[in-house]
Amino acid sequence: GSVIGILGGGQLGRMLSVAAARLGYRTHIYEPMANPPAADVAHAVTTAPYEDLAALEAFAKSVAIVTYEFENIPTSALDALEAHCPIHPNRRALSISQDRLIEKSFLRDLGLMTAPYAAVDDAADLAEAVEEIGTPSILKTRRLGYDGKGQERLKSPDDAEAALAAMKDAPAILEGFVEFSHEVSVIAARSLTGEVAAFDPGENVHVGGILSTTTVPARLTEAQRTDAVLLAAKILNALKYVGVMGVELFVTKKGLIVNEIAPRVHNSGHWTQNGCAVDQFEQHIRAIAGWPLGDGSRHSDVVMENLIGDDIARIPAIAREKHTAIHLYGKAEARAGRKMGHVNRVTPR
Ligand code: ATP
Ligand code: MG
Ligand code: MG
After folding, report:
1. Contact indicator for 173, 100 with CB cutoff of 8 Å
2. Is 94 part of any domain?
3. For 47, 51, 63, 162, which has the most beta carbons within 10 A of its beta carbon?
4. Which among 46, 12, 41, 15 has a CA at the least distance from the CA of 29?
């Protein structure tokens, strides 16, 4: 079979590689750090920085298509690759999701609801933004944040100075704090021919800014479920997107508010591995390889639990549980806050 190139060798790249292998493809991982989780299951690995144009060119020539498992890839790397092979999802989707300010204005332009926001580059901007948006609010770096990193909460305007200092001069965005009842996400896919399919929305609980559990079915009315899926489809179609995307939503009395989009397979979609015939990883490979989308209808209720840091020590006990599927990422060191694996606890419908 032909080779699929994946930028990023973390657990998402690992699970994409496994799904690709099941469909008869090989994967070539490009990852700056040595011995990444995906290296164990990939056909080839290039260890080089995203700035190494010669390594990028050689990588692009060795693969039929390129995808990514990580949204913070410099767009200059995509330029070097694009000359040699197609990249899915496209660079517009990547660049929008890399910058919270651009992301929010894109979503607003589509007619979707976001938190109130304002750009913050300095103390004067922040004073104005706090005046306009008020507190509680959250100051976030525009770029490079994940797992709640690069975020400071403002309980009152008095917190502004310390929050700005924590941004370390990086361009930032102030977001009004959304009074949500709970959080959900939609994992949706669009094929090369423009077919769109969405998995059932999952309900997400974050602890300390990191996803802890995803539960399906989520607590949503039929109308909310329909809204969630339609708004995800609107985003995918607007971007002429190819592949799987994660759309994070806040559920509020006023309706669904989009928090952020991730142009890749998503942690909150891991439940699909044991809840659907075709999971998000296979769906992504199908989409980018030009296949029809698979059947992602949910055959079971699932609670996905992330195993973070020392949680991994619970594996011997978890291994005795019934109806529990274990997914480990092969990471040697269990550092605090590090995603080591996840489990899917399954109840057939
Ligand atoms: P991820 O790992 O999902 O990429 P991230 O670092 O990009 O996370 P966000 O998704 O922006 O961070 O925020 C993490 C969590 O913080 C959200 O899931 C939500 O619980 C809370 N949060 C973020 N922004 C807001 C907001 N404007 N109002 C209320 N809660 C928020
Ligand atoms: Mg994010
Ligand atoms: Mg998020």
Report:
1. yes
2. no
3. 63
4. 46
List the one residue out of 179, 176, 168 whose CA is nearest residue 143. 168
Of all ligands present, the nearest one to the C-alpha of 206 is 1
- Does residue 108 sit in helix, strand or coil? helix
148 is in an annotated binding site: yes
Task: Please give the residue range of the domain that contains residue 171.
Answer: 116-176
Q: Quick count: other Cβ atoms within 10 Å of Cβ 61?
A: 11
pTM of the model: 0.97
**Which residue is closest in CA terms to ligand 1's atom 23?**
259
Mean pLDDT for the stretch of residues 176-205: 98
Condensed to tens digits (0 to 9), the pLDDT of residues 298-307 reads 999 999 999 9
CA of 210, closest atom in ligand 1: 2
Residues lining ligand 1, CB < 6 A? 115, 138, 145-149, 175, 177-178, 183, 206, 209, 248, 259-260
63 in Cβ contact with 28 (< 8 Å): yes
Is the pLDDT reported for residue 1 higher than 70?
no
In a domain, 261, yes or no: yes
Same domain, 126 and 274: no
Residue 128 lies in a domain: yes
The answer on 197 and 169 residing in a single domain is no
CA–CA distances in Å: residue 81 to residues 56, 61, 76, 265: 6, 9, 9, 21
Question: Do both 137 and 229 map to the same domain?
Answer: no
Shared domain check, 189 and 160: no
Q: Are residues 195 and 80 in the same domain?
A: no
Contact 185, 248 (CB under 8 A): yes
Domains of the chain: total? 3
Tokens of 205: 């609980």
For residue 121, being part of any structural domain is answered with yes
The helix (run of H) or strand (run of E) holding residue 102 is helix 100-109
Find where tokens 């310390």 sit. 162
Q: With H, G, I as helix, E, B as strand and everything else as coil, classify residue 234.
A: helix
* Nearest atom within ligand 1 for CA of residue 149: 6
Q: Residue 169 maps to which CATH number?
A: 3.30.1490.20
What are the tens digits of pLDDT across the range 77-115? 999 999 999 999 999 999 999 999 999 999 999 999 999
Same-domain pairing of 126 and 251 = no
